# Entry
Amino acid sequence: MTQYNNPDPSLLSECLAKLTLEDKVRLLTGRDFWTTWPIEEIGLRRMVVSDGPSGVRGEVWDERSPSLNLPSASSLSSSWDTGIAARYGAVAAVEARRKGVDVVLGPTINLHRSPLGGRHFEAFSEDPLLTAHLAAAYVRGVQDNGVGATPKHYVANDFETDRFTVDVRVSDRALREVYLRAFEDAVVREGAWLVMSAYNSINGATATENELLETPLNSEWGFDGVVISDWTAVRSVESAKHSQDLVMPGPDGPWGAALVEAVRSGAVDEAAIDRKVLRLLRLAARVGALEGFEPTEPEHREDGVAFAREAAVEGSVLLANDGLLPLADPARIAVIGHNALHARTQGGGSATVLPERIVSPLEGVRAAFPDAEVSYSLGAIVQEGLAELDRDAMRNPVTGEPGARVEMLDADGAVLFTEDRLASGLVYFGGDAPIGEMTTLVFETDYTPTESGPQRIGFASVGTGRVLIDGELLTEQTAQAIGTDLGAAFLSPPAVSAPVQFRSGRSVRLRVEFSPQRMDGGLSNALSITIGTEPADMDADDLIAEASRAAAEADVAVVVVGTNSRVESEGYDRADLNLPGRQDDLVRAVLAANPRTVVLVNSGSPVLLPWREQAAAIVLNYFAGQEYGAAVGDLLTGAREPGGRLPTTWPAAIDDVPVLDVTPVDGALAYDEDLHIGYRAWLRAGTTPAYPFGHGLGYTTWELTGVTTTEFTEGVAAVELTARNTGDRAGKHVVQVYASRPDSTVDRPVRWLVGFATVRAQAGQAVRVRVPVQDRDLAHWDDGWQLEPGEYTLHIGSSVLDISTTTTARL
Ligand code: BGC
# Structure
């Protein structure tokens, strides 16, 4: 904790006393997308908040200000390693300070209730305890380095469909034991400086006006930080009466003058305003934004890029391996798959950061096996919608440098704003561009394709655009928003394109003139447009045949399968769990051509792998961050072993998934399964998944013996055991402890996770492992935490289905 964790309250009160009602109310709404208001008279500077959570984007969404792109949260949680999570948070804090950011808008600690959840990749796990331990470590890593962390979204924002309006109906017990659990740890154990309130309602009241903001958050957990709203989630003056502190974004919003008026008329108590302002001032002191409290320089020292690579390895799960991995010096390697070249290193939506460079799996394989002959085949089309133009293929017609010229014009055609960009994905979400005033955006570049043949070219954004090639109009089209989620229309906009014939190496002048459709409210000053290409029509069977031929000629094939930018993003949920396009056919054909095939899975959430029984080796890399390919190299050569264990059940078929539905009925979604989400639901249904919660192999083998358990003292019992590395190389193992209570008088999960420990040992080495089990994790909620006396069975194993031994503990 930093020296400012508990700033002197009298100093904060002195500042408060100097403020007028207008000053105070102004402070409670953001100044723009990402900052709060400064007040010079009291020595308060603006504070900058930024997404996150897998890296820090900063105040602008701009490739000219790149960020470290860490693996997404489902990868982080697969490490089951609080040490990695704390370093992840610390590295994020260092990035934040480098970018002038005071507050990271993360971690996202909603749960993997359904694998269809659109932001599943951004959340940790289906298990509350695993999420809680890792999230707490992330928060500690951020805040120990003087930056605020923001566990989000409070609460039950576990899916995207109708997220602004849906009412989640969930029992108190499920809230306390499941959905609030990680928030509780982040606040009680780590003293989180902020919490973000969600868009949705919980049991009839929208999150920003929900009693849950006071109880348990403040009254029971002692939260003294700032409840920041999700962007545009505050909708009324009434919400100021609740424990909602800060409205984002600003400067407009429902509080402002209306709230001043409400205080003057007595409708809202000024004490409520003072309480919020004091919290904001406390945050300012903590991050060093208030005079007298200098910002703490992050103490963490670590190469972020090296950490990103290590985290990607630790988060990769070896789902299956018949001995093919690690690879023994192959002379010819066939790398196959769209995602091998165009890797997904992160999910879409507000979590996006813009890395300086990405190491693709193809590059990673080439670097890791410098003496091997490495071929590449596309195999299947995965991309849907537009991909940005290749940066190396663009030249700015005005400067002659790489990139493009962008101009913004007003209704009379006068140029209001000009900039030179390096990329063709443009997002104005904060920053100085006059989005509110301009009517037309003009993008111009000299584009030199690297391949001849038909392609489609166009734009993705809501509005009307003209695409001109060498001065000739190619197409004029209007793209309409899909669905009603403004965030989705903004962050994952619809695309329109037209066919064009390109000649490799022949440059064309590409000009796009685009008039955006105005967005309402908080997004009226925002614009997102991508200029790019869609895959040309290619014969899918030919692609598969070509890839199979390459596989047959190689010693080993490495196929990368995965999702695309349309599948895992914000503002909508997934429709199914299939790999897009013909990827399943591709894998089957490659497996038939060469049984020595490694399949790498590049998705942030579960996908179906119907050929999994035939594959020699399957590694799940998730969205592995910018060092994805480097991590793949480490794993394939065996320089490192995959360190991950599944934080979420992977189904064999969508119909097997016990909790799937994310579609509200009459505006509500009932969490009828109550406590039984994830593996708890699978156990109850008696269905076997493709890969169970906790599963993951390494390159060595383990034996767990000699289990003992201590009595509960001061609420903690210790399970101790010996973990022996029985293989011939060093490795990592995750010891998991589950509890059950078959004779319970209350409804209980069949078994549930109560503790875990990460063990590392040399070949042949035996390590004594201690896993603390808290009595609170055996308790149930019934108008308070209740400890049911009696005997609990503790199951010790390597996944929820792979239990090696049991013991008992008495309460
Ligand atoms: C997301 C938040 C994010 C915010 C700011 C919202 O749409 O739900 O997670 O922090 O936007 O980008």
Notes: The longest strand covers residues 716-725. Residues 51, 105, 152, 230-231, 350, 487 surround beta-D-glucopyranose (CB under 6 Å). DSSP finds 17 helices and 36 strands in the chain.
